[in-house]
Amino acid sequence: MIFLRKKSFVFLFLIIIFLICLFSPGAKGAVKIFFMQLFKAPLKTANAVPKLPSKLPKGKTARENYMLKEKVAELEARIADLNEVEKENQRLRELLDFKKRKGLSTISAQVIGRDSSIWSDTAIIDKGSKNGIFINMAVITNEGLVGRVVEVGPTLSRVMLITDPDSKVGGVLSQSRDLGIIEGTIRNLLRMRYLNIDAQVAEGDTVVTSGLGKIFPKGVLIGQVVKIEMDKTRLYKYAYIKPAVNLGRIEEVLCVK
Predict the structure, then answer these.
(1) Quick check: pTM over 0.90?
(2) d(CA 257, CA 241)
(3) What's the CA gap between 47 and 42, in Å, rounded?
(4) Which of 257, 227, 252, 254 is CA-nearest to residue 99?
(5) How many CA atoms lie within 13 A of 172 on its CB side?
(6) Per-domain residue ranges for the chain?
(7) Which fold has domain 106-257?
(8) Can you say whether the dihedral through the CA atoms of 212, 99, 183, 165 is positive or negative?
(9) 11-21 per-position pLDDT tens digit
(10) Among 118, 184, 127, which Cα is nearest to 158's?
(11) C-alpha span between 202 and 186 (Å, rounded)
């Protein structure tokens, strides 16, 4: 009994450390990856534990009604599962079609976690070095650019989203072909810097990756210009961009080799 208590205490302690590392903005990303890798299987097992059945009510009619309700609830759950599978299949088909159109060599992955704060904006995917993932792989969906891989574990990796304040992407205005550097902001928008003062930019213009730097493929949609401002030096313009991808809802991504 004492031994079991000690094991429970140790497990609880590790869980607390894991949560601190996962949600603390100052924690090192590699430490977060390590703990997520360590608890990946136990957490999945814990989530898979079925609910215990409720106590059956007394009386034949009451029991029959209860069983019918249980059956209806079970069927509704199965329908919901089937709908979810269909939606996932549709998303995967769209990703596959996009991959074929672009002629890209990619590795598909699922987003299994998100770490968003005023200091960073990252996501965890369920593929790692064993699956061919490496640092600085571009991450995309059929809708546009998501980010790049910044940390890799054996079967998990961390992706820095383009909205992260440390994210930098070379971009080009589709209409005028003016170049700029696109960085993340804490307002869930992107900012395109170093546009020439005479750059032809307007609200509604689309922005794509420039291909410079050799991390991101050329021509991947980044987003649409929603606001334009002048730099304090009055030598450059800023263009604020709404990302093409709803980064809060991504579930499947492609990592470009």
Answers:
(1) no
(2) 26
(3) 9
(4) 254
(5) 14
(6) 2-43, 60-103, 106-257
(7) Thrombin, subunit H (2.40.10)
(8) negative
(9) 565 666 655 55
(10) 127
(11) 23
